[in-house]
Protein 1
Amino acid sequence: MPSAFYQARLAARQVMKKLLHLPRDWIRKVRRAGRQHFFPALVTRDGSLKLPPALLLDSVFRASRGGRMKLFRRLIPYLSAPAPASSTGVCEINSLAEFESGYARLAVMLGHAGKTPPPGEIEFLRTIVNRPLHYSGAIGPSDYFFLTAFVGILAPQRVVEIGTLTGFSAAIIAATLRRQPGDGWVDTIDLLPKCFIDETRPTGFEIAESFPELASMIRLHVPHDSTVMSELAEPDELEIVFIDANHQHPLPLLDLLRLAPYVRRGGWIVLHDIQLGTKGRKANAADQICWGAAEGAEWLFESWPFRKISGGNIGAVQLPNEKSALIPFALRLMSVPYEIKGKGAHAAMHGALHRSFDALV
């Protein structure tokens, strides 16, 4: 048993330690309060965000020496006021019976009024709707109705997809391109060689198993992430890309920023699971299990300050004519706490986001 003298001495040392730490703790509180007062990161319910000065200065500091003043001049006008999210065009196609009318509405929204589904489109979709297999995480009927119509109306030469999973959505895109003039194809990119939902099978396994007639149109790039784009496309080449990978904030934003240099001005980026966070909150409120209810894709779509179209849980955002306008938007969204976790993950994501700005200035 420790003596009374020893216990008193230990207690005195603990009190002294607390007293010595008081100045340090007080300084930390002052610094925290100062950051909150001078460098606020505010998120409003309508999706509008303020540009935190700390992030602006950090971005300028990280830029190349020759580009710092140029970047600063471009960012400073965005500092004074929040940028509200733009209004959202809506074109949901919730059943095959609505496909033709939804296609016509979307065609008008995309500047192709009068365009109709090509022969065989609806028949193909009918076989998909009636197929017995549906894997968790794959796009649902209203999603692939919208995606089919969107790709079919714009009819690009090719589409790049981030997030392959089983390969189902890549096959949907390839089937749409096959009914358009020219020899189109899909580049689909995934970080995992084994499928995320079934590690006994390779990523993209549905392409060969369920859509062998489309396999020659689909180029699988595994294991890779969106950094591989520099090897697959030229700047301003693409008209449509599809992001359906990890939805944890800020990964959808990072994928978009990495893709943007290769998408033409006024081009489109389609995002999946733009209602996933809302669905997750509703499921939790009802004591239901919701798979992967990350908010990143939803926050990205809701706060997008340029033109956008919602198809329900899938939507498309249009790039501005001046791609450098993406930088202040990205900095605002970076002020929202990251969902990605792990030792060093925040710093790694922060650095990767800043590096992606170089191709946009």
Protein 2
Amino acid sequence: MTGVLYCAALLALAVVLLVVLTGRVRLHATLALAGLIVAYGIAADMTISSIGRTFSIGFVNTLDQIGLVLLGGIVAATFVERSGAAPRIAAALARRRVSSVIAVPIGLVAGIGASPTSGLALLLPLVRALRGRSALVLSLSLLASFALVPPSPIAIAGSSVLGADATTVFAIGAPLAVIIALAGWFYAGRSLPRVDDSDTEATTERASTRDALTLALPVLIPIALLIVQSVAQIPSEPLGRGGMRELFTGISRPLMLMVFAAGLALLLVWRWDATALSERGWAGEAITAAAGALMVMGIAGGFGRVLDETGAAELLGETLSIKRWGVLTPFLVAAIVKTMLGSSLTATLTTAGMIEPLLPALGLDAPTGRALAVAAVGAGAMTVSHINDPHFWLTAHAQRLTPSRTLLALSGGTAVQGGVAAVILLILSAVLR
């Protein structure tokens, strides 16, 4: 137990040092995070060889899963903005004062796709139009539905391991996701009271139908494909099997999503000239902008893998899982694993496997209790997103925040959302028994 607490203390120290290095010392976040990973591994008694090998696995897996999707999203966002469509839509939305409100339902729908990080990457063109706090609100809303609403992968995984009915999980998780997404929206307004959009283009031109299509189609079609992929991967195979299932899952792979997002933006903007497509034009600008975000997200994924290698998260989770605190136990175990490892899916699978034999002792063995346990695991699996989570760094990039501000805004937001979810689940477990 002493070793587990030592590793947890090292992680907390790494977070503090990152804030100091990027804030006071002005060191680039990529270099600061890379150095902290090496220091953490050595302090955790890992060999130099194992640090490098383990980090490489996490780095490569992260870039494989989200790298191309992010590139497609940034290319689409750049073309939509430089064409003038995003500024015109932004002006129209600003007149109606609905930008931040729109972000909540969009994030909730997109969150049931295969990954909130991929979802946010594909929503980047919309972020350029909504502006303000939209990236943070979208990020928190994506995490809410991804954690709680089937057919999201972690809701389905939790239901499968814990033997819960997916329909019951949806009936509990969907309203809960809406509530905590609204809590996240409220928190975003308090954590980011002012947002600087001074470097964005101002326009007096009115938005056209073509502008709306230029913004919407490169976002909606890839997001729809992500959702289809989630549905296709449900164990009951609702979209069929064999070749049909391979089609639905294959068309939602990162390469295909990048081609759809960037290709649709190129077609709709219709700027087939050197200004748009050259290395020094819009395309070159987008790829250059993507490089920094890709690197820091890949390094964060490698950090999560190094943290996983120590085994501290699982040991701490197992220690806590023996507590008989009802629905609060799976929530806290999942929150600890998520906070220490940075992966919601790993937190869900790890916690569900620990908790399933303990459901009778926790009073959660009935069908409704199992559904509540799935929701508790999901809510814990989004709490707390911080520097070992690629989603943290994508949110920082999209919202243009420093690491310290992102810790306040996103990490604080996921903590608030998790706390609200835990309170509601405690009430539901008392009422529905």
